[in-house]
Write a sequence for this structure.
């Protein structure tokens, strides 16, 4: 069993959806909710999404009847983030798909204090929307091993735009963004910061983004672009292995 937390998408409460006789309906409550048996059953997810199109709906973790309380608390916590724009609000949101953000925002005070210190360089970027774009790009880079092609596919950008943003991040933070010892902490504070700074609905404060100018001082030529560093390490390791291996025959 699992709880579903709900909130109307518009100003009016939607009509009661056809949910089936086995779903317990709490739509009349101040904080509407449902109790759903066997949420992973065949066709259950699709049926819920179709029935709850007029609602922002969040599915809590499944468990025994005695675990419905925690299921509803997690669902309501995710619902509050979805209503602020910190989590997606389209379709049926499953808390299991957003566990890092939910856990991090539960420890909001501590994570927020660390984020304020670790992400202070972002405040040098004037546009709030631009700061968010850079934070989203850095999260994707950390999760994709700074592979520009994979990052570009994830955030729906051209790889050159990813490389331009990453050079900006290097200028702001330095080489610490590549330090594996800081990777987990950076991901945690970035997710917390993104949850506290939802995307601008109007987008009017987003600064125009242009490709980085070509470097002519020779420094760029002596240093590989950051997104391709993983490939360079692999190539270097292969060359070292070839040099130290005994000749064939």
């Amino acid at each position: 069993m699992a709880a579903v937390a709900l909130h109307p998408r518009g100003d009016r409460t939607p009509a009661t959806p056809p949910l089936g006789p086995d779903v317990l309906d709490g739509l009349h409550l101040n904080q509407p909710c449902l109790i759903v048996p066997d949420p992973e059953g065949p066709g259950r997810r699709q049926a819920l999404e179709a029935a709850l199109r007029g609602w922002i709906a969040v599915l809590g973790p499944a468990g025994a009847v005695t675990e419905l309380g925690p299921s509803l608390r997690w669902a309501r916590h995710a619902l509050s983030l979805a209503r602020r724009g910190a989590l997606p609000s389209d379709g049926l949101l499953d808390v299991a798909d957003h566990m890092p953000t939910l856990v991090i925002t539960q420890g909001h005070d501590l994570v927020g204090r660390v984020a304020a210190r670790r992400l202070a360089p972002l405040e040098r970027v004037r546009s709030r929307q631009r700061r968010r774009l850079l934070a989203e790009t850095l999260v994707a880079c950390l999760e994709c091993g700074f592979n520009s092609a994979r990052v570009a596919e994830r955030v729906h950008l051209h790889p050159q735009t990813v490389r331009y943003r990453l050079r900006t991040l290097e200028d702001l933070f330095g080489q610490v963004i590549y330090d594996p010892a800081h990777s987990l902490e950076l991901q945690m504070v970035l997710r917390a910061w993104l949850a506290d700074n939802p995307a601008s609905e109007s987008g009017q404060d987003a600064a125009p983004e242009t490709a980085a100018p070509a470097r002519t001082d020779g420094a760029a030529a002596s240093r590989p672009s950051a997104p391709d560093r993983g490939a360079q390490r692999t190539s270097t390791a292969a060359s070292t292995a070839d040099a130290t291996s005994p000749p064939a025959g």
Remarks:
- The first strand starts at residue 2 and ends at 8.
- Residues 25 and 34 are 5 Å apart (CA to CA).
